[in-house]
């Protein structure tokens, strides 16, 4: 499922691009240093992906900035509304899965026969 760009991912992407360009780095150079794919950097800058904190922290380390720098000036958040909840669920990276059935002594015993 592709992320629906929103004001937050777009703002983070713009900040990322700005810091990268200030350092004279290409997307490929940043990607190689951060050990991610170049297309990932492109999608981050376009606000098309919702990266993990670890990915952002790694990119910040490469750019010699803090996470606070990357999120600087961003004062946006989705309000806790049905619309915001729907958007958050649409952007989840992993689909919800049903937990595996719990095995009992009876099912374990039946498996050994």
From TrEMBL:
Residues 16-70 form the HTH cro/C1-type domain. PANTHER family: HTH-TYPE TRANSCRIPTIONAL REGULATOR (PTHR46797), METHYLPHOSPHONATE SYNTHASE (PTHR46797:SF1). Residues 80-113 are annotated as: Disordered. Pfam families: HTH_3. GO terms for cellular component: cytosol. The keyword Magnesium does not apply. GO terms for molecular function: DNA binding; DNA-binding transcription factor activity. This is HTH cro/C1-type domain-containing protein. InterPro entries: Cro/C1-type_HTH, Lambda_DNA-bd_dom_sf, TransReg_Diox_bact_type. The keyword DNA-binding applies. Keywords: DNA-binding. It comes from Acidovorax temperans.
């Amino acid at each position: 499922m592709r992320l629906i760009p929103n004001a937050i991912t777009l703002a983070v992407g713009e900040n990322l691009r700005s810091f990268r360009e200030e350092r004279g780095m290409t997307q490929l150079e940043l990607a190689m240093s951060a050990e991610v794919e170049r297309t990932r950097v492109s999608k981050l800058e376009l606000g098309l992906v919702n990266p993990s904190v670890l990915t952002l922290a790694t990119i910040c380390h490469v750019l010699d900035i803090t996470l606070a720098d990357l999120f600087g000036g961003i004062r946006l958040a989705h309000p806790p509304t049905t619309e915001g909840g729907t958007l958050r669920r649409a952007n989840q990276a992993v689909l919800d899965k049903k937990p595996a059935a719990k095995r009992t002594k009876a099912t374990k015993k039946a498996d050994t026969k």
